[in-house]
UniProtKB/TrEMBL annotation:
Residues 23-245 form the ABC transporter domain. GO terms for molecular function: ATP binding; ATP hydrolysis activity. PANTHER family: TEICHOIC ACIDS EXPORT ATP-BINDING PROTEIN TAGH. It comes from the Bacteria. This is Lipopolysaccharide transport system ATP-binding protein. Keywords: ATP-binding, Nucleotide-binding. InterPro entries: AAA+_ATPase, ABC_transporter-like_ATP-bd, Bact_Polysacc_Export_ATP-bd, P-loop_NTPase, Wzt_C. Transmembrane segments: none annotated. PROSITE patterns: ABC_TRANSPORTER_2 (PS50893). Pfam families: ABC_tran, Wzt_C. The keyword Lipid metabolism does not apply. Gene3D superfamilies: abc- transporter (atp binding component) like domain, P-loop containing nucleotide triphosphate hydrolases. It comes from Geodermatophilus telluris.
Length: 395
């Protein structure tokens, strides 16, 4: 068996709370015993070449801290971390980013942090630009002028083109339109198949089921379960289902389940090219409006939308506010959240739309509706699940 690229052995991490923020505060406020918070406790895992280990668990469970320790950006309080002497890529929206620097300068910095020399990083800029689907003018504009989606695409491209022996991914594969997400997922699959080791944190179960060979479930900073990806994902989703209660039928023929603290009152699909309600054109965009009503006090929540081809269980689109960089959504007594996909690129046909509202720790859904409504993509069917922009050349 090949040697692991990364080994975490009984790793723990704690942070001090209540530290004085200034000299004045340190010497004038009453002395209090320091308060420590244990974020990780006795966590062990390893990642071998060609292995993708997914990490799941509620927000605040230590997943991002685990990645920072694995990358060397944070040192553990206890335990040991061993890495093989090879390139390590850390993929996260905020790592090393500066809004005043150009996209090109930020991309070079990210590629250098991922293991390339400055000269090699500069040489790879055209590859980064092409992968991120940016033009030269945009690449040299300040990063602060980029949309969140553009920042995420650039961050992914800057690290992905280095082809690291170890790739660390923190919640950023749900970026851009459907065709770009597919490109990202295919790229990670290619890295895995060529022998790269990957450690990935995500709340998008469909992506983890596709990419991961193995998984670890963190609960309150400790390893609650480990095993094959299918085993751990099944156990994690069963736990969420048990807390959400039994399903309730919908008028559409679908079902809903959740704690009921926040309820979805309507889901409306609208194409961006005036094709009529519940439809969109091939290559057109789609807006999904989720209206809700807060039943009991809840400050914020994550929203998610997925699309499945009618008659199948495979999610072809699975997006969340958290995974897309928008973060938790502040809640009102009545509100509306709209997801807009600029290019859907799905094959013509009928698709079921599922939508959910989740607690910010992702431990349980407030309300999740599946087979709630349908959207129809207009056009001539083909033989594949997606129809991205393309062209043929002869000669």
């Amino acid at each position: 068996m090949t040697e692991p690229v990364l080994v975490l052995d009984r790793v723990g991490k704690r942070f001090r709370r209540g530290r004085a923020r200034s000299l004045r505060e340190r010497f004038t406020r009453p002395t209090a015993a320091p308060r420590w918070v244990q974020v990780l406790d006795d966590v062990s895992l390893s990642v071998r070449p060609g292995q993708v280990v997914g990490v799941v668990g509620r927000n605040g469970g230590g997943k991002s801290t685990l990645l920072r320790i694995a990358s060397g950006l944070t040192t553990p309080t206890s335990g040991t971390v061993r890495r093989r002497a090879a390139v390590s890529g850390l993929l996260t929206l905020n790592a090393s980013a500066s809004g005043e620097l150009s996209g090109a300068d930020n991309a070079v910095t990210a590629a250098v942090l991922a293991g390339l020399s400055p000269a090699e990083a500069r040489r790879r800029l055209p590859d980064i630009r092409d992968f991120a689907e940016l033009n030269d003018a945009t690449l040299h504009e300040p990063l602060r002028t980029y949309s969140d989606g553009m920042k995420l695409r650039l961050a992914f491209a800057a690290v992905a083109v280095t082809r690291p022996d170890l790739l660390l991914i923190d919640e950023v594969i749900a970026v851009g339109d459907l065709s770009f997400q597919e490109k990202c997922l295919t790229h990670v699959e290619g890295l895995r198949d060529r022998g790269s080791a990957v450690l990935v944190v995500s709340h998008v179960m469909s992506q983890l089921r596709r990419l991961a060979t193995d998984a670890v479930w963190l609960r309150s900073g400790r390893v609650h379960a480990r095993g094959t990806a299918a085993e751990v994902m099944d156990a994690y989703e069963r736990s969420m289902d048990e807390r959400a209660g039994p399903p309730v039928p919908l008028a559409s023929g679908g079902y809903r389940k959740g704690t009921g603290q926040v309820l979805i009152t309507s889901i409306t699909c609208t194409g961006t090219q005036d094709t009529g309600p519940g439809t969109t054109a091939l290559g057109g965009g789609l807006s999904v409006a989720v209206e809700y009503r807060r039943q009991v006090p809840a400050d914020s929540a994550h929203f998610g939308v997925s699309l499945r081809r009618a008659g199948t269980d495979t999610a072809l689109l699975d997006l969340t506010t958290d995974g897309s960089g928008a973060g938790a959504v502040p809640l009102h007594d009545d509100g509306r959240v709209v997801l807009t996909v600029d290019r859907l690129d799905l094959e013509p046909g009928t698709y079921w739309v599922d939508a959910g509202i989740y607690a910010t720790d992702w431990e349980v859904p407030f309300d999740y509706c599946w087979d709630a409504t349908q959207v129809r993509v207009l056009g001539v069917p083909s033989h594949g699940p997606v129809q991205p922009p393309h062209r043929w050349a002869v000669g």
